[in-house]
Amino acid sequence: MAQIKVLITGATGYIGGSVLSQFLSSGQVTKAFQISVLTRNDDRAKSFASAGIKVYTINDLDDSEAIKQAASENDIVIHTASGYHMASAKSLIEGLGSRKRQNPQAEVYYIHTSGTSNLADRPISKKYLEPRTFSDKDQDIYSYLKMREGIEPYAQRTTDLAVVETGKEQGVPTTIIMSPTIYGVGTGKFNRLSVQYPIQMRQALQAGQAEYVGDGEGVWDFVHIVDLAILYETVLVDWVSAQRTIPVGEKGIIFSATRTFKWKEVADRIGKIGVGLGKLTNPVARSLSLAEAAGKWTGGNEQLCELAFASNARTSADIAKDLGWVPSKTRDDWEQSFQEEFQEVLKRA
User: Fold this and answer.
1) Angle (deg, nearest 10), helices 64-72 and 86-102
2) Which of 16, 89, 247, 335 matches a 20 to 30 Å C-alpha distance to 167?
3) Where are the alpha helices (DSSP H) in the chain?
4) Is 166 within 8 Å of 245 (Cβ atoms)?
5) pTM, to two decimals
């Protein structure tokens, strides 16, 4: 039986690199799937090729024709390169749609990477106040995203809606894995750091102390990168099995949260670790206004800063649990990860 062809984008990044590492270490995956990667044409592409991995190269995520062509030569695409870039997501799905039209017997599938800031409220600016916990099993997340998008467009949410709609147009089943804060040092070959906590660590190094937005009382979820990579494998294997219990299309939006935290807790841990490492002078975290934090952390984008660093975004990964996903990392792992991540940030400073 021929191996199923799987294309991973963003393999030089934090999520994609860790997913690729998980797949290559899994006998179940390497036996059933032929793994390839889509990346820019540089030394990193050569590194993958020298390791025996098939490489498709592009100029950038706007290289739509090359992206479509690469997707059309594969059965499954796992897109981790960017959740905010709608054009690349649509090109990948259109490529799979082309494959399906050329060979109606082909079983194509698209897995997209997104984040729970799509669901977050706006407690600082008061532009949207509705803190609650979302279940991917018991609630219509797609309809909620459309409602929120009608109130206030947000690039990552816009992209998710385009994924679902383009998949329906092209006859391509789609599943979106919508993750909370991802923590822990990644297992890929290149970028091994996430986004949110490292940004706060780098800015703490500049300020001499950790910082948070407003009162820091916003509650988010987290998931360890290793647990998340295992979930991608779980979804992939479920799709190609006879059961195919993973939902797709409008119902195919699933979560990966394991436990919760408050933003003030994050700042406090960064302050404690930074002082312990001799890199911060003040262990007490200080509050920033939304405008101040946006200027430091998100290039002045207050919407992104509030959604990603000051909001409430709580989810329950009920579908993943039904699939048999059993995350192994605990809250102790989360607390201990700050030391490792801070040291990784220092290596790259």
Assistant:
1) 40
2) 16
3) 14-24, 27-32, 43-50, 64-72, 86-102, 141-151, 155-170, 196-207, 225-240, 263-276, 290-297, 302-309, 318-322, 331-347
4) no
5) 0.97
Question: Which residue has tokens 């690199």?
Answer: 17
Q: How far apart are CA 204 and CA 227, in angstroms?
A: 28
- Start-to-end Cα distance in the chain: 48
In sign, the C-alpha dihedral spanning 235, 239, 242, 243 is positive
The dihedrals phi and psi of 284, each to the nearest 5 degrees, come to -90, 120
Split the chain (349 residues) into runs of 10 and give each run's mean pLDDT. 90 98 88 94 91 95 97 98 97 98 93 98 94 93 97 97 98 98 96 96 97 97 98 94 84 98 98 97 96 97 97 97 96 97 92
From CA 101, how far away is CA 90, in angstroms rounded? 16
Helices (H) and strands (E) in the chain, counts: 14, 14
Question: Alpha-carbon distance 205 to 81, whole Å?
Answer: 28
Nearest to 342 by CA among 238, 243, 197, 245: 197
Whose tokens are 């948070």? That residue is 212
Tell which residue, 312, 269, 280, has the closest CA to residue 181: 312
- Within 13 Å and on the Cβ side, how many CA atoms surround 135? 7
For residue 311, the surrounding DSSP H or E stretch is none
Contact 16, 10 (CB under 8 A): yes
- Name the nearest CA neighbour of 8 among 81, 72, 90, 59: 81
77: helix, strand or coil? strand
d(CA 318, CA 37): 30
* Dihedral angle sign, alpha carbons of residues 220, 224, 225, 231: negative
